[in-house]
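Handoff note, outgoing to incoming analyst
You'll be picking up this chain. Sequence as last confirmed:
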Amino acid sequence: MDTIYYVVESIDGDYANLKRTDADTDELKLVARALLPDGIDAGTKLKYEAFEYEVI
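Most recent structure output, in case you need it:
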């Protein structure tokens, strides 16, 4: 399994736009907030590993 790092760019209702920080890309990933840890906000750094998001 790969480990991927993101930062929350913005929150739009029940979804969050995540920007990958460990690769050079401008694409945002739209993720349902139900899949993310509680209490996230714009600027929160996340680690994605083994199909789970974790605040770092």
